[in-house]
Amino acid sequence: MSNPIQSLIDTGTKLYLDSVEPSELDKNLSWGAVGATSNPAIISGIVAEGSLDSDIESLLGDGLSDEDVAWELTDRLVSAAEQKLMPTFKSSGGNTGWVSFELDPLLEDPDAAMSDAQRTEQYIELGKKWAKGHPNRMIKVPASKAGLAALEELAAASITLNVTLMFTADQYLAARDAIWRGAQRRTDGLDQFKSVYSIFISRIDVYTEKHVSELSDDAQGLVGILNAKRIWKMNQEFWADKNCPLEQELIFASTGTKKPEDAPWKYVQALAGSDIQTNPPATNEAVAESDVSFTRTVDQMPDASIAKEIDEKLDVQDMHDFLMAEGIDKFVKPQRSLIALIADKRKELSPAG
Questions:
Q1: Domain holding 39: CATH number?
Q2: pTM of the entire structure?
């Protein structure tokens, strides 16, 4: 096993892979990863490689639409990852070994003729559909208005949730409180209750670089880390007295660096020591090939003067509004691209169709 990755795991970090590509997953499991996640961009990458062409051809032969083929392939890939992680799930009593399945991003399409109430209804319906029969599948719901409104009912239905597209503390608080309300309504009690909250990191620093240029060099590039650590602390304090057998955790997401001059493990290193890191394959590869020895840093805050400067210069509401609008766009487009890719495969594999 890679020593740098083992040193990261030894700090208390649970390593997840931001992919369900079979060979990448196998490699990361050998390194000690205990979970994985999927999204349409990941599925598109796997489909584009051509390894699923025979599956696609068969599904097209069954008369499935492009959209239905996309979802069938997603379900199969996530299910295969779940089977690989089932031993981890069982040995941990359900605390790890999860694979996240993202609900239909097109529900957030601004051009769709749907009210927020209709979107919420669809999230609940689809969450129940895709969770059924999958004990170690997390259902991924965005922290949009409609997504947040669906969380209580999904949690009450004993569905394990990963709240994604989350940038700010207000989103975290709304999601956490809704899920906790729902969890207390579960008919099967809290023994298997698990929830995670995906806090995006690097997108925040990309935002401040462009839109909060008045930050000093010392503060620039630390906003995402400070934000994540503060929310982590809130999460630790909230669940401390709730007597839940399983951990209710943050997922540190968007951990790939965007600036060439940053070490690829910048965010991995800054948030080591607790909860879950869902890292892109390239990030875990860079960590594995490094000579870094990780130590617990998740509870070490930036210097007080830096935190004060960030609080004074950052308009959190503006950041929230911008990143959510951008995030919804990045949420919707990959699903459209996946469906378009299936349409191209239809022409390639079934010329008469």
A1: 3.20.20.70
A2: 0.95
Residues 296-329 have pLDDT tens digits of 999 999 999 999 999 999 999 999 999 999 999 9
Say what the alpha-carbon torsion angle 200, 83, 138, 38 is, to the nearest 10 degrees: 40
Residue 98 pairs with which residues in a beta bridge? 35
Query: Which residues sit opposite 162 in a β-bridge?
Result: 140, 196
The one-letter code for the residue type at 39 is: N
DSSP secondary structure letter of residue 163 = E
Q: Which 8-state DSSP code applies to residue 133? A: T
Q: Are 49 and 341 in contact (CB under 8 A)?
A: no
Residue 253 lies in a domain: yes
Give the number of other CB atoms < 10 A from CB of residue 200.
22
353, part of any domain: no
Tens-digit pLDDT profile for residues 194-243? 999 999 999 999 999 999 999 999 999 999 999 999 999 999 999 999 99
Concatenated DSSP letters of 183-197: HTT-TT-STT--EEE
pLDDT digits (tens, 9 = 90+) for 8-43: 999 999 999 999 999 999 999 999 999 999 999 999
Query: How is residue 59 written in tokens?
Result: 């599904």
DSSP 111-125: TS---HHHHHHHHHH
- Nearby residues of 147 by Cβ (< 8 Å), 6 or more positions away: 108, 119, 120, 123, 141, 163, 165
Q: Is residue 45 part of a domain?
A: yes
* Three-state secondary-structure class, residue 166: strand
In a domain, 191, yes or no: yes
Q: What is d(CA 239, CA 186) in angstroms, rounded to the nearest whole number?
A: 17
130 has pLDDT over 80: yes
Cα end-to-end span (Å), the chain: 48
Domains in the chain: how many in total?
1
Range of the domain at 162: 3-347
pLDDT digits (tens, 9 = 90+) for 158-192: 999 999 999 999 999 999 999 999 999 999 999 99
